[in-house]
């Protein structure tokens, strides 16, 4: 029975590690529990009356919540591993009575002290296998901290690339290039560069799906409100006389279609055309905050 309880704790630890791996390091970057938490907070924020004021907090709060979930699951799992073997498999410092420190709370204390690498030494394992397992928890705590910092450092460059594209499209819409300007070398270069940035954003949504749950600043042209103009540029370019402009416009149209596919498959689930997907994206991010 003791080993069955310990195996249950090990299962919790493995579940947290699996979710962490799929969220941060798996090629698809699709964590199960972490995605549920993020999407749940996103949907909950849409029901808040003052959503515009809390919108910017959803993404950071979702990441913090996921990290806390990982940490709590790992701490609880390791505590359940220790619990059945207390107090006989542990050595207690002077002033502590082993019979009074054998419940789950004490196991949680040992787990928390170990994962935080505090090394207080008042309760330490004496069984050989526990003396090996306990340092592994400390290493895991260090790995969790490192993974969290890496996650934060990865997500914000992706958000910056998205915002750069959004602002560029907003500036292009304001400049409103003429048909003559589009049907020239400048038009081909412009469409090709926009297509490159769209591809980067599409890759970011694939590799960093949590970026979807970050709101852009509504005062500086969010991508959800400006991506439709990129589709308009592609349509205008495909009607140009120059073959290089038409080619660049076709590439841009393909990049936008790929972006719409990622948005729909991972987040929106409309099953519609790219135009309908971008409209749903704007409703989810842009007009809903107006």
UniProtKB/TrEMBL annotation:
<keyword id="KW-0472">Membrane</keyword>
<feature type="domain" description="Potassium channel">
    <location>
        <begin position="84"/>
        <end position="153"/>
    </location>
</feature>
<keyword id="KW-0812">Transmembrane</keyword>
<protein>
    <recommendedName>
        <fullName>Potassium channel domain-containing protein</fullName>
    </recommendedName>
</protein>
<feature type="transmembrane region" description="Helical">
    <location>
        <begin position="61"/>
        <end position="83"/>
    </location>
</feature>
<feature type="transmembrane region" description="Helical">
    <location>
        <begin position="129"/>
        <end position="153"/>
    </location>
</feature>
<dbReference type="InterPro" id="IPR013099">
    <property type="entry name" value="K_chnl_dom"/>
</dbReference>
<keyword id="KW-1133">Transmembrane helix</keyword>
<dbReference type="Pfam" id="PF07885">
    <property type="entry name" value="Ion_trans_2"/>
</dbReference>
